[in-house]
Amino acid sequence: MIQNCCNITRKNKICKRKDGKIFSLPRRFTKKQCKKQKGFSMRASCAPFNQCGGKISRQCIAKLFPDKVVKNNKVKGIVNFKQKDKNLIINYNIENLKDGQHGFHIHKCGDITKGCSSGCEHFNPFGKNHGSLTSKDSHAGDLGNIISKNGKSFGKIITDKISIIPGSKNSIIGRMIIVHQDRDDLGLGNNEESLKTGNAGKRLSCGIIGIKSGF
């Protein structure tokens, strides 16, 4: 029996639309479009297939620019985000950083009217204290420290605390990612500021997280 497109599983190879037409899987669609008599568009920019049982990847990107408030600051880079099931894979490549550790965070606001300073506080939808990437009591936007060597920092971070799924409480789409001047003490600094920012210092470079072209 061919199932309706809102009741499928990963094992299904074909699916039946509301208008009775049959097509091969996977396809991208939303539940709302699925329920319409006319079905849905092949090129629809819509929710991931896993909302109806299958799965596709979703990707975002942020281009980081130096904050002009910091003198002689040339820190810049690219950060890519890829959703894989519950995990978000973050790949970063940042240049012109002073060697050492630097705090790396998602901030609440995607506002660049005043540079990185208008990015608001750390993204913290669950009302926790600042901490490390792996600690249970930490902001969703706490990504820990990145390490710069010979002026460059690149690597991968995997976390399930944040996502790029539109409408989810922990979605970071439209928010700001920031590289800080100093090392993040991960909430272990024994002072009030440590539990808010990790004493990571000035905001060197930032970018707005947006949906990547083609996704």
TrEMBL record:
Record PROSITE patterns: SOD_CU_ZN_1, SOD_CU_ZN_2
Biological processes, Gene Ontology terms: superoxide metabolic process
Pfam family membership, one: Sod_Cu
Segment forming the signal sequence: none
Entry GO MF terms: copper ion binding
Domain Superoxide dismutase copper/zinc binding: 75-209
InterPro entries found in the cross-reference section: SOD-like_Cu/Zn_dom_sf (IPR036423), SOD_Cu/Zn_/chaperone (IPR024134), SOD_Cu/Zn_BS (IPR018152), SOD_Cu_Zn_dom (IPR001424)
PANTHER family attached to this UniProt entry: SUPEROXIDE DISMUTASE CU-ZN -RELATED
Protein's name in the database: Superoxide dismutase copper/zinc binding domain-containing protein
Source species: viral metagenome
